Q: What sequence folds into this?
């Protein structure tokens, strides 16, 4: 037992650093760069560790005639082999709707679908054994393309329509109309750490699961269902992910479930890690879309009616596709008021891996379609696209005229975009550079420059209402150190840093006195995936609430113990002051402990105000909107289709920033990842549905050389979130991804210059140099023919 503290008269001196608003570095920054951050494959292994490998379908669609695993069983080091028939509990691991099979049974539906799994004494032995399987199939016709699926009416979930007024009539009555279509490519997540899980069997048929998942509670549920045991016997731990980007929201689960079954059978720890090739082949990606649009507009370019059909390639199973396509539909308006509007969303079933969440969750594919239409209108009317964008913006504040209502009847309140865009237009010298670009293009035959400013309005909240909740747990130990836990997962985005800052701020102690701990289902239960950019909004508030509970107990205790008024008590600079006296935080904790005050508390938060009726497509699905805008300038080689991004100016709104360097990092990373999606990252399948781009040699993500030469990012200052979010901040994880649309639009602008801006080029994505060259050829031919 320690000596009881003396009550000091001394005033606190040490200044608190790194609390809310402080540009503190990522909690693991040093560990990331030095290689000391422990990922699952770095964890110490047990002496009886086993390693798993997955056997997969080698055709895209067919009946399974026979799975002969005799040679697999006999192979060196093999301890156990599991097929669909050996799954002790449920075989279906669909996250929302049934349809995602842990292992194929009777039928295979994509090339690379897991059929069986092997545990062996080494990773190499497991991989070798898998190759010895003899599987025969009766092939069935396979569908890979959206067009084909639409013709066959092959949908994984029913189509959904959102509409207001009579769009067709409004388009028909409009002075002008334009129709177009756009094919949008998918995207591999390319998290640096691949999918992995390590499962350790415990007493009473339970398991401890280490997984690289954005959704520990869902892993807990699915492992329990697959093993047929109560959820309480499954504990899931996630310290950090080496990137998730949505790819580990649902699709980290199969590997944890398979390892769990093997661990159950062998009663040994089993680790399942996919190598890059297998990861790319077996897991789903961003949904490719084939969209069409039709807009009617007046002489100024004001949109009077709009129709959109959004067709997503969902792959073989439902996974999250219903919500992903909803999210595309909810964002097709982007920043623009659409008076008479009809939006159709189709979820096409194909024989490919099941496509899943990816930063933006379908909304980038919706927004891109709208921005294509806007640029087409500008070209048609011979106006600057920025003029058309501005004229169609939602009003700054709801007016009686009501150009503030989204197609789903949520009112856009306090719209800061018009002001933000004006600001960026001036800071980035848009108008002057527009003239310079024209001058440059007039005298350069081979090199053509393009410029574009595009905005982003992104709704924050899970559209499924009950997901908008979070929990936290705080313990203060008797040395005064604070142990922090919450339901969010750290995937590099800086969530743990921000939540620790929030807790340090609440207690007014040094940030270094708040100790971050791994996310665990036995500490904070029933959590939501860390997704939809709401990690900090939800878990930050929950942790703050836990801290407030303890702080209130401490305040009550001081008031009673020292006979002072509660109003006199302040937590400041690692001390608590009351009247003329003060006590250090750690001394207070000691004192509270011996006076039997509980120093542990849970906290909880649920987002207010939101509701959504999906059938009627009306409500307030989003608590608020996040905004930003970007100006991109590109230079395109007319002869080769190659291009370079010369300069990017971003102005992004994060409300009152909890951590400006982490927020800036998210904006940089999101933008560059978006640029990769729209430019260099191309997924290629052969005509049998086998993915050919299975690694960095054939699938090109952006590298340091692709970063814009001149990259200027600013946070829109003095814009606290009008809603009561945590410290009036705004979510930042996904919105900046869509700022990259400006790069694609700038490339189109450069190509259009060849026709003296009379033709709006068709440019599907990714806009690889090949596609850019095709567009150049097409625009040249059409403009020579005088089309
Ligand atoms: N940043 C890093 N470094 N790694 C990631 O995996 N995922 C993105 C974004 N930023 C991701 C990231 C996605 S898809 C989401 S939804 C958010 O982070 C999730 O975290 P948040 O809600 O805490 O912002
Ligand atoms: N939105 C949503 C999301 O409503 N549900 C989700 O699961 C989700 N995941 C990622 C991003 N947005
Ligand atoms: Mo992010 S796509 O919401 O995981």
A:
């Amino acid at each position: 037992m320690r000596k009881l503290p003396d009550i000091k008269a001394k005033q606190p001196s040490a200044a608190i650093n790194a609390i809310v608003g402080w540009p503190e570095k990522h909690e693991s920054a040093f560990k990331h760069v030095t290689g000391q951050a422990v990922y699952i494959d770095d964890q110490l292994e047990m002496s009886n560790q086993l390693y798993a490998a997955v056997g997969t379908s080698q055709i895209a669609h067919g009946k399974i005639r026979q799975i002969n695993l005799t040679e697999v069983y006999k192979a060196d080091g093999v301890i156990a082999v599991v097929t669909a028939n050996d799954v002790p509990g449920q075989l279906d691991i669909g996250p929302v709707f049934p349809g995602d099979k842990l292992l194929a049974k009777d039928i295979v539906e994509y090339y690379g679908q897991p059929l069986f799994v092997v545990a062996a004494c080494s990773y190499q032995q497991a991989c070798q054994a898998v190759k010895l399987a003899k599987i025969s199939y009766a092939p069935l016709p396979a569908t890979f393309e959206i067009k084909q699926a639409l013709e066959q009416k092959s949908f994984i979930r029913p189509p959904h329509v959102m509409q207001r007024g009579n769009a067709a009539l409004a388009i028909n009555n409009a002075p002008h109309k334009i129709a177009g279509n756009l094919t949008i490519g998918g995207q591999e997540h390319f998290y640096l750490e691949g999918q992995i899980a390590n499962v350790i069997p415990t007493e009473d048929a339970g398991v401890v699961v280490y997984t690289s998942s954005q959704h520990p509670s869902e892993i807990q549920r699915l492992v329990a269902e697959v093993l047929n045991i109560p959820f309480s016997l499954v504990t899931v731990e996630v310290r950090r992910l080496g990137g998730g980007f949505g790819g580990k929201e649902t699709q980290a689960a199969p590997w944890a479930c398979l390892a769990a079954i093997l661990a159950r059978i062998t009663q040994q720890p089993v680790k399942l890690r996919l190598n890059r090739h297998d990861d790319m082949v077996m897991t789903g990606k961003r949904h490719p879309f084939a969209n069409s649009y039709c807009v009617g507009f007046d002489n100024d370019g004001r949109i009077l009616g709009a129709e959109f059909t959004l067709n997503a390639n969902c792959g073989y199973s439902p996974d999250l596709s219903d919500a992903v396509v909803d999210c595309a539909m909810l964002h097709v308006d982007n920043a623009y008021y659409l008076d008479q509007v009809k939006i159709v969303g189709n979820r096409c079933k194909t024989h490919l891996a099941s496509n899943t969440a990816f930063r933006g969750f379908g909304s980038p594919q919706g927004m891109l379609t709208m921005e294509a239409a806007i640029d087409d209108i500008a070209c048609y009317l011979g106006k600057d696209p920025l003029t058309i964008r501005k004229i169609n913006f939602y009003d700054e504040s709801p007016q009686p005229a009501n150009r503030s209502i989204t197609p789903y009847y949520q009112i856009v309140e306090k719209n800061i975009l018009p002001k933000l865009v004006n600001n960026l237009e001036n800071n980035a010298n848009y108008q002057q550079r527009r003239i310079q670009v024209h001058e440059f293009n007039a005298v350069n035959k081979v090199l053509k420059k393009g410029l574009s400013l595009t905005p982003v309005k992104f709704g924050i909240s899970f559209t499924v209402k009950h997901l908008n909740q979070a929990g936290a747990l705080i313990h203060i130990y008797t040395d005064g150190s604070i142990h922090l836990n919450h339901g969010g997962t750290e995937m590099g985005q800086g969530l743990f840093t921000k939540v620790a800052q929030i807790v340090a701020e609440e207690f007014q102690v040094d940030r270094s006195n708040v100790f971050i701990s791994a996310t665990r289902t036995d500490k904070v239960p029933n959590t939501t995936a860390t997704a939809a950019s709401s990690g900090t909004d939800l878990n930050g508030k929950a942790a703050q609430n836990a801290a407030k509970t303890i702080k209130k107990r401490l305040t009550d205790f001081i008031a009673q113990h020292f006979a002072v008024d509660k109003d006199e008590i302040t937590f400041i600079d690692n001390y608590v002051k009351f009247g003329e006296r003060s006590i250090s935080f750690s001394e207070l904790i000691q004192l509270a402990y011996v006076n039997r005050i509980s120093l542990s508390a849970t906290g909880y938060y649920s987002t207010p105000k939101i509701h959504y009726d999906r059938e009627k497509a009306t409500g307030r699905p989003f608590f608020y909107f996040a905004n930003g805008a970007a100006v991109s300038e590109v230079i395109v080689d007319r002869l080769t289709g190659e291009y370079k991004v010369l300069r990017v100016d971003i102005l992004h709104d994060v409300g009152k920033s909890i951590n400006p360097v982490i927020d800036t990092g998210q904006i940089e990373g999101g933008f560059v990842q978006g640029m990769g999606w729209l430019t260099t990252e191309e997924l290629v399948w052969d005509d049998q549905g086998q993915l050919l781009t299975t690694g960095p040699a054939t699938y090109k993500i952006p590298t340091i050389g692709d970063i814009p030469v001149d990259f200027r990012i600013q946070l829109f200052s003095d814009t606290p979130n009008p809603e009561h979010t945590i410290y009036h901040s705004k979510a930042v994880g996904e919105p900046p991804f869509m700022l990259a649309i400006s790069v694609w639009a700038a490339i189109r602008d450069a190509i259009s210059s060849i026709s003296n801006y009379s033709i709006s080029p068709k440019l599907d994505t990714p806009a690889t140099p090949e596609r850019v060259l095709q567009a150049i050829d097409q625009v040249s031919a059409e403009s020579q023919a005088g089309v």
